[in-house]
Amino acid sequence: MSQTSTTADKLAVVETLYRYAAGLDLRDKDLLASAFAEDAVADFGPATRKAGQEYPPVGGRDSIAAALSSSLSHLDTTHSLSNPRVSLDGDTAHLEGIMACQHLPREDHSRHVLMTNRYDVDLIRRGETWVVQRLTVDNAWTEGDPAVLAGI
Fold first, then answer.
1. Which of 35, 59, 90, 151 is deepest in the core (most CB within 10 A)?
2. Which CATH architecture has domain 3-150?
3. pTM above 0.85, yes or no
């Protein structure tokens, strides 16, 4: 694989997480779903348990998009990916990165919870597009009021 195609693939892998974040923040369920393989699995449990909530793993692109859209529907959010590290192996990739996730109740921006989460992501190439096959999110630290996530 040439250096140019390796660089392009790494950028395309990172762009998958940008689609995911934009789908969340813009409340665009189709854009969010486009980041996942049909049979993807997303596990937010390691992060949500630290915030005092249980969120079981979710399987399937449409189920993941629906679950995330529903659980964040009462919030204004900003998700920012940093420090992405990508390794490639043919049509599979692995990404580790940090996602800063700001959550504010839509009706009361005086409260918030900022979670900085570690993302561990396996991706596969589908045609010209990279999609998430498995996503695991663990919390590095939290600042603010975790009750915001529950709509309390």
1. 35
2. Roll (3.10)
3. yes
